[in-house]
């Protein structure tokens, strides 16, 4: 076995663990950080359920080894919600627009949507659909998810001058 | 943990990376963005005793204009190229093909060199490289020397050898790609058909056109993807365009040139599309991309 010490800051907290090189960042987050909000669907980069922010960029955490994130800052779904236990603007929009049913894919959608809206404050619906194409949902048929993204965009626009 | 165990190496220079690859030979694999390699490891379609991670090699990153070329470091992320003003200005075909590569989360991690070295024949970048006439700079071990590397340059037509296979040897590393800046009045377009946004294309075409002061085509580049084991450089169709003006190139001529581009092709059948369908669609996509490129060049 090839085990190495890995240090990662997740949601502002420092985590240190000795892991095998083949351990993905997704497994590190769930097993070593005990943050199980990040979900694993396909584990080979297709479904997007495991999306996290790595140094601010939305990436699939199943396609990165934990050791590659040594020294990096990661934000997971747990880090997007306000500390008071409320919902973020994007989360609230998903609730209002029925952007989820079983909820398994939702953490990935929320992280992807949050990252996309940071870079695209005023997206068209076509841009929204393109941005959401990297995440799979087997329940909703996507209509509610697209509406949730558009609602979050307009609410973020109102709150940020 | 789905991939088989491996030893992990994270060199910080090209010389160290090449030395590691040379030392382990076929037992080692270079890890770039990992957006294709890691799925293959997870599915155990591939396994290596050693992975040489290039993500900490700073000298492999960056976009620089040097004379008549734009040099893209192999580890430059696709998302960086997508937003780079130099690329958008002087290598527009590369800029326009990039949003078609995977999804934005993939492009945040995936690299230009990784996609080219992975050499999936259905991917966009290899066809762009062939259409523009890019040059690949490959770093190799300094034959037993203590430090330093050698570099050899290969043109795009020789770089791709087969499905997932390039001319890069086990002890070598793709270091950078030089995209020539097309001078004068030019137009570029990429067209593809995919089942869903972000999926691998069933088939596609990347085209560049240059016209002289009289509006006659003086330069043409056509690269096809998804039609065979490697990207296809449609040089016969390119030659047929030379000297023609936008007026000469009627809808019928475009159709003929599209057909010329696929004459010798025998694309594969698979679950997604028949070879015959791919061939027909490729012909039409060439015509469509050329039409847009001609328009742009004529208006430039």
In short:
The complex is a heterodimer of chains A (161) and B (300). Chain A is α+β, with helices and mostly antiparallel strands. Chain A has helices at residues 25-32, 77-80, 89-96, 106-119, 125-132, 143-159, and strands spanning 3-10, 13-20, 51-54, 57-60, 73-75.
Key traits:
heterodimer; A: 161 residues; five-stranded mixed β-sheet; 6 helices; 5 strands; B: alpha+beta; four-stranded antiparallel β-sheet; 12 helices; 14 strands; 26% strand; globular
Describe the structure in your own words.
The complex is a heterodimer of chains A (161) and B (300). By secondary structure, chain A is of the alpha+beta class. Chain A has helices at 25-32, 77-80, 89-96, 106-119, 125-132, 143-159, and strands spanning 3-10, 13-20, 51-54, 57-60, 73-75. The mean pLDDT of chain A is 96. Chain B has 300 residues and is of the alpha+beta class. Chain B has a five-stranded antiparallel sheet with strand order 4-5-10-6-7. A four-stranded antiparallel sheet of chain B has the order 11-12-13-14, sandwiched between helices. A three-stranded parallel sheet of chain B has the order 1-3-2, with helices on one face. Chain B has helices at residues 14-24, 37-42, 78-83, 85-90, 92-97, 104-107, 112-118, 124-132, 156-159, 235-241, 251-262, 275-299; strands spanning 7-9, 28-31, 50-53, 63-66, 69-73, 135-141, 149-155, 160-162, 165-166, 172-180, 185-193, 203-211, 217-225, 232-233. In chain B, strand 8 and strand 9 (165-166) form a beta hairpin. The chains are: A alpha+beta (161), B alpha+beta (300). At the A-B interface, strand 4, helix 4 and helix 5 of A face helix 2 and helix 6 of B.
């Amino acid at each position: 076995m090839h085990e190495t010490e890995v240090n990662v800051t997740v949601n502002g907290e420092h985590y240190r663990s000795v892991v095998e090189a083949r351990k993905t960042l997704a497994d590190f987050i769930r097993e070593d950080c005990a943050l199980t909000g990040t979900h694993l669907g396909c584990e080979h980069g297709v479904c997007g359920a495991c999306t996290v922010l790595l140094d601010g960029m939305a990436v699939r955490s199943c396609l990165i080894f934990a050791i590659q994130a040594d020294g990096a800052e990661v934000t997971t779904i747990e880090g997007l919600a306000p500390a008071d236990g409320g919902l973020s603007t994007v989360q609230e929009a998903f609730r209002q627009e029925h952007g989820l049913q079983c909820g398994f894919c939702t953490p990935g959608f929320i992280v992807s949507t949050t990252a996309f809206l940071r870079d695209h404050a005023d997206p068209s619906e076509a841009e929204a659909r393109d941005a959401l194409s990297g995440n799979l949902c087997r329940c909703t048929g996507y209509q509610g998810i697209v509406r949730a993204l558009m609602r979050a965009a307009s609410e973020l626009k109102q709150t940020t001058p | 943990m789905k991939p088989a165990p491996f030893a992990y190496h994270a060199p910080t220079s090209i010389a160290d990376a090449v030395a590691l690859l040379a030392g382990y030979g076929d037992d080692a694999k270079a890890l770039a963005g990992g957006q294709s390699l890691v799925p293959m490891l997870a599915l155990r379609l591939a396994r290596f005793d050693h992975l040489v991670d290039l993500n900490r090699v700073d000298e492999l990153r960056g976009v620089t204009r040097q004379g008549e070329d734009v040099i893209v470091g192999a580890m430059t992320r696709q998302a960086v190229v997508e937003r780079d003003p130099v690329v958008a200005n002087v290598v527009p075909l590369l800029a326009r093909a990039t949003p078609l590569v995977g999804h934005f989360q993939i492009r945040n991690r995936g690299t230009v060199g990784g996609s080219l070295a992975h050499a999936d024949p259905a991917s966009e970048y290899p066809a762009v490289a062939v259409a523009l006439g890019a040059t690949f700079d490959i770093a190799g071990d300094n034959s037993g020397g203590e430090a330093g590397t050698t570099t050899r340059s290969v043109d795009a037509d020789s770089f791709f050898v087969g499905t997932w296979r390039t001319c890069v040897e086990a002890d070598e590393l793709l270091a950078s790609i030089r995209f020539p800046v097309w001078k004068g009045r030019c137009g570029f377009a990429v067209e593809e058909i995919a089942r869903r946004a972000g999926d691998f294309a069933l088939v596609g075409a990347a085209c560049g056109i240059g016209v002289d002061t009289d509006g006659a085509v003086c330069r043409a580049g056509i690269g096809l993807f998804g039609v065979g084991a490697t990207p296809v450089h449609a040089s016969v169709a390119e030659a047929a365009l030379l000297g023609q003006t936008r007026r000469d190139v009627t809808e019928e001529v475009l159709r003929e040139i599209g057909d010329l581009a696929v004459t010798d092709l025998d694309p594969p059948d698979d679950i997604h599309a028949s070879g015959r369908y791919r061939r027909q669609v490729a012909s039409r996509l060439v015509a469509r991309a050329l039409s847009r490129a001609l328009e742009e060049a004529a208006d430039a």
